Amino acid sequence: MNSARKLFLRSINQQKWQRKFACSATVRNEFLIRSPISDVVIPEMRFMDRLWRDSSGFLDYTAVECAETKKSYTYREVQRNMASFATSLRKKLGLKQGDVVAAMLPNSPEFIVVAFGTLQAGCVLTTINPIYKEFEIAHQTGTTEPKVMITIPECLEVVRKGLKAAKCNTKIVLIDKPGVNIPSDVVKYSDIAENCEPDYGLLDKIENKKDDVAFIPFSSGTTGLPKGVEITHANLLAASEIMAAKETCFAKFTNGDFQDVVPCILPFFHIYGLVVTLIGHLAKGCKLVTMNKFSAGLYFDVLKNNKASLLYIVPPIAILLGKHPDVKPEFFTHVRHIVCGAAPLAASDAEAVLEKSQKQIEFNQGFGATETTSLGTATLIGSKDLDYSASGVPMANNVLKFVDPVTGKDVPIGESGELYIKSPTIMKGYHKNEKATKESLTEDGFFKTGDLGYYTPGKGLYITDRIKELIKVKGMQVAPAELESILRSHPAVQDAAVIGVPHEFYGETPKAFVIKKNGLKISPEELQDFVAAKVATFKKIDEVIFVDDIPKTSSGKILRKDLKKMYA
Predict the structure, then answer these.
(1) CA dist., res. 361 & res. 359, Å (int)
(2) Mapped to the 3 state alphabet, what secondary structure does 308-329 carry?
(3) pLDDT band of 13, cuts 50, 70, 90
(4) Does 15 score more than 50 pLDDT?
(5) Rounded distance, CA 517 to CA 546, Å?
């Protein structure tokens, strides 16, 4: 081999090595952490075309089955019902391009039809937790102004109250079930999705531009009340392609006698369930087994009886699998990968699950946020000597850096700082909230996560704390400002502050500090009940402490770190 050829190959190998260990040579880029895998090319196509690009090989396989009712759709039925639903939104319900549809649904076969049928109609979907109460529904619908709301009969009355409080003139569609009477002033889901003909000529003319918003899930961001996160068709297309990279794609294509089975316990109204679970696995032809609410017994039955092969979980589920006496090795007979995200997990908890399984399973960690659409980091398939408390390395096309939260200056790789992420999956912005958008996105395209941590080459990302105010309860976001607003509305409360305190199983729980109005009496239990009546169960305040003062800045911002030092 001649010397020129040797020099060329040495240069190529050196570039590969530098890329693998995520550090560039320029002065400003020396703090950037790049993916050890090659960037993927984002194709020039519509997201919905990308979702079903490979579906011809698995149209007659089961796409989704409800664990409780056993109702199921094949891929062929999902696609037809989506087209029928999309047609009905346009022709029967009168929606136009860009109109918002709200889905307040548990995990179910119908959710898939509603979610992607909405996009097929050129509309925008906002997802609402089905255990939300009037106050929470009013906040989200008042912000997004949906033209149609799809929900279940059990939620009808609270939905009516929430829409009324938000002053929204919204048509309601109910998921109808055998033996359940449907009021005459609402629309039956079956009439517009299962029992009507799709108009493909109409649908083929609908064009969604890349920058058009597709989904508006809600996130607490770094401060304040939950905000609508604008996820575009381009974000979803990029997420689909990035998740399909062989180094981080845990699912296999359905063919012949093989089909991956994915128990769906992560809520579809949450970005983790909506994008990672649904989009990532529908595109591969997997069988999704839905549960409309979490029950340990039902989950164990699904693991035991459905040949589950891929488990997507959050830390409380990992702890349950590792500690519950009813968890048996046979639950993991077909499991290849367990992927945990939404909050940090202790290495000991991951090891406890693997010990229970009594087989070789890859336990993968990941990090993402609603604002990043999909995972920003993940453990690579086949990684050796894993530290299970690390959250993996950057996904393809993702770049990380850490910034000193005080000075705003980049810090060297390995040092602690606030995590920033840049990716084609980063949100467009916060819905109708330009101020929050500017505070969260840098001019060069990085999203400020509000999470403190560091990166160790060869090990990955470590999240150690949070700058952002949100409280993580069972992997779900709780905004302190939301609970404080409710507390202050009580006639006996002068002021209130809420922080998250550690909890062995839930991760964190909300703790409130309240200043009473002079001369008025109220018990901690009464305030807890007052809040519980207005919010979803996971947001309930675990403890109320009466105080004489709440530390604040000169501008009135609550000093939560000082509260934690003083009382927690």
Answers:
(1) 6
(2) CCEEEECHHHHHHHHHCCCCCH
(3) very low
(4) no
(5) 11
Dihedral in degrees, nearest 10, Cα atoms 160, 163, 168, 173: -50
How far is 303 from 330, CA to CA, in rounded Å?
Answer: 9
Alpha helices (H) in 58-150, listed in sequence order: 75-91, 109-120, 134-144
472: helix, strand or coil: strand
DSSP tag of 307: T
Q: Mean pLDDT across the stretch 52-60? A: 95
What domains does the chain contain, in order, with CATH numbers?
73-207 (3.40.50.980), 471-567 (3.30.300.30)
CB distance 451 to 418 below 8 Å: yes
Strand partners, 124: 100
- Pair 395, 245: CB distance under 8 Å: yes
Q: Is 440 helix (H, G, I), strand (E, B) or coil?
A: helix
Give the model confidence (pLDDT) of 326-381 as tens digits.
999 999 999 999 998 767 677 788 888 999 888 889 888 889 999 999 999 999 99
Retrieve residue 178's tokens. Answer: 């055998």
Count how many Cα atoms sit within 13 Å of the Cα of residue 69 in the half-sphere of its side chain.
14
* 105, 152 contact by CB (below 8 A): yes
